[in-house]
Specification:
Oligomer: single chain
Number of strands: 6
Structural class: alpha+beta
Number of domains: 2
CATH superfamily of the largest domain: Winged helix-like DNA-binding domain superfamily/Winged helix DNA-binding domain
Distance between the termini: 44 Å
Number of helices: 4
Helix content: 25-40%
Order of helices and strands: HEHHEEEEHE
Largest sheet: 3 strands, antiparallel
């Protein structure tokens, strides 16, 4: 996959610092929260650089990216490179990876019926985890 011009991620000190920050943060976080964590660790990385690295890492499949209920993009270090979806708690932000075979079959069927090919999709599920729902 071609990287945006001028963007190097792998092997740079900034990329290593970003990976360490992502690994230490619980669940999905905004780029601003990741940037704040980097600053807390004494790293001098600009917010624009954080966004650029997160975009490249997301395209490479090493960072999960979702949009929360308000539309804000959130990021998390990816546990797997296999296509998956997320079930995220609206209250605490805890997230679990889930497979969605029925969703995959539905997406393929809808695309085929409309004559579309090479279709990608994103499914994000939000609810309350057992702790936050009192169960």
């Amino acid at each position: 996959m071609q990287q945006p011009r001028g963007t190097r991620v792998r092997g740079t000190r900034q990329a290593e610092a970003l990976a360490a920050a992502l690994a230490s943060l619980p669940g999905f976080c905004s780029a601003q929260e990741i940037h704040a964590e980097l600053r807390r660790r004494g790293e001098h990385v600009g917010l624009t650089t954080v966004y650029r690295h997160l975009q490249v890492l997301s395209e490479q499949g090493s960072v999960d990216m979702i949009r929360d209920a308000s539309g804000e993009t959130l990021y998390r270090q990816c546990a797997t490179t296999v296509h998956h979806h997320h079930l995220t708690c609206r209250s605490c932000g805890r997230s679990v990876e889930v497979e969605g075979r029925v969703v995959e079959q539905w997406a393929e069927k809808v695309a085929a019926e409309a004559g579309f090919t090479s279709v990608d999709h994103t499914v994000e599920l939000f609810g309350l985890c057992p702790v936050c729902s009192g169960g």
